[in-house]
């Protein structure tokens, strides 16, 4: 926070992780005790048992070991829950929570010593285990004197007031949100070229120059996607449009693509040819249909598939370069003037090049690209 502006530097979480997980694990423990005590294999986790497990959780958390009653089917089963048993259950859940905390810190490029304060949010953060864990992880103060069940409501009320009264001058600060998932554009090889990375504060404005890969190309396809994967095909497609360019040699026609995200998450993508004074744009609600669960899954998928994605990215880049060289050779052939012997030699290399492009062998693609490029260089020397 600086001069009343609170900037979100990273977000993280797991919508499938919370106090209910502790209730469920505690209910499983009780069910095992019930089956062992009564020498039966019956009984299952019901809503009633989960409610009783929640009460036991609150009781053990406040008073330590104790005897509690649990409804299992038509029976009422009484058993002791020790603080050690309870701690073992809580530690399982908190270890997952700590992983998320560390991952979010990594996204924010922060270390624990840089965190001045930690605010606990949610009823389950009342558990003493939570504060003990965070006290070990962060040297800064962990606030447990703020009602964790009303802190979000209070913050939302302040933010709502700020948005509806921007000129009042009496607000408690301005909240700056972040882009939840990376925004990218497709480049040759089906690669996702990220323009606005995940966790970039909004509003955000980024522009980048792009060019053609093929001689005489008359348009550039602008394909916008959202996600954390290296390949466009593995990300969420947001929009696609074509932008006309002058049919110049490869690399000479240039356009500037601009990504602009406002405070509401609206993304405006524009393509500009400053030489001809032409511009084309599209507006996208980048947050439409995206849930917290979707965001978490995208991030998990990117981590789990990182190695394979990088291999496919390298293959895509190699194939893009091979395609560029192949098109260059086709242009040389079209000009004429090559002897039949040279043509036969070139066509043989081109056939092997096309076969390599149909394969998944990056070594083959790179080798044939070198051969074809060497042939182009040789032909140009002879022309000179």
TrEMBL record:
InterPro entries: ATPase_NBD, HSP70_peptide-bd_sf, Hsp_70_fam. SUPFAM superfamilies: Actin-like ATPase domain, Heat shock protein 70kD (HSP70), peptide-binding domain. The keyword Nucleotide-binding applies. One of its GO terms (molecular function) is ATP-dependent protein folding chaperone. Transmembrane segments: none annotated. Gene3D superfamilies: 3.30.420.40, Substrate Binding Domain Of DNAk, Chain A, domain 1. Pfam families: HSP70. Keywords: ATP-binding, Nucleotide-binding. This is Hsp70 family protein. It comes from Anaplasma phagocytophilum str. ApMUC09. The lineage of its organism: Bacteria, Pseudomonadati, Pseudomonadota, Alphaproteobacteria, Rickettsiales.
């Amino acid at each position: 926070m600086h001069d009343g502006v609170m900037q979100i530097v990273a977000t993280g979480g797991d919508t499938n992780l919370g106090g209910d997980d502790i209730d469920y694990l505690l209910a499983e423990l009780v069910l095992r005790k019930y089956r062992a005590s009564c020498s039966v294999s019956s009984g299952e986790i019901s809503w009633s048992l989960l409610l009783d497990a929640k009460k036991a959780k609150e009781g053990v958390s406040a008073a330590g070991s104790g005897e509690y009653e649990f409804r299992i089917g038509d029976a009422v089963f009484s058993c002791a829950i020790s603080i050690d048993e309870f701690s073992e259950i809580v530690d399982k859940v908190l270890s997952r929570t700590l992983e998320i905390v560390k991952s979010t810190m990594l996204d924010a490029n922060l270390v624990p010593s840089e965190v001045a304060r930690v605010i606990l949010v949610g009823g389950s953060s009342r558990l003493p285990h939570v504060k003990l864990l965070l006290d070990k992880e962060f040297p800064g103060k962990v606030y447990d004197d703020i009602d964790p069940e009303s802190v979000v409501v209070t913050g939302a009320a302040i933010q709502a007031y700020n948005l509806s009264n921007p000129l009042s001058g009496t607000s408690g600060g301005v909240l700056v949100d972040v882009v939840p998932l990376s925004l990218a554009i497709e480049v040759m090889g089906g690669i996702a070229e990220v323009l606005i990375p995940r966790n970039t504060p909004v509003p955000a404005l980024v522009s980048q120059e792009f060019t053609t890969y093929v001689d005489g190309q008359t348009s550039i396809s602008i394909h916008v996607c959202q996600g954390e994967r290296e390949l466009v095909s593995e990300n969420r497609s947001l929009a696609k449009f074509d932008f006309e360019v002058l049919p110049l040699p490869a690399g000479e026609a240039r356009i500037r693509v601009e990504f602009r995200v406002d405070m509401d998450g609206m993304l405006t993508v524009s393509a500009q040819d400053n030489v001809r004074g032409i511009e084309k744009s599209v507006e996208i609600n980048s947050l439409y249909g995206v849930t917290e669960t979707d965001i978490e899954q995208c991030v998990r998928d990117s981590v789990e598939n990182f190695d394979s994605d990088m291999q496919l990215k390298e293959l895509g880049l190699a194939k893009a370069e091979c395609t560029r060289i192949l098109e260059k050779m086709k242009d040389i052939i079209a000009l004429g003037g090559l002897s039949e012997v040279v043509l036969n030699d070139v066509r043989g290399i081109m056939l092997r090049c096309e076969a390599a492009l149909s394969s998944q062998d990056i070594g083959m693609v790179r080798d044939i690209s070198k051969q074809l490029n060497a042939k182009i260089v040789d032909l140009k020397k002879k022309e000179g």
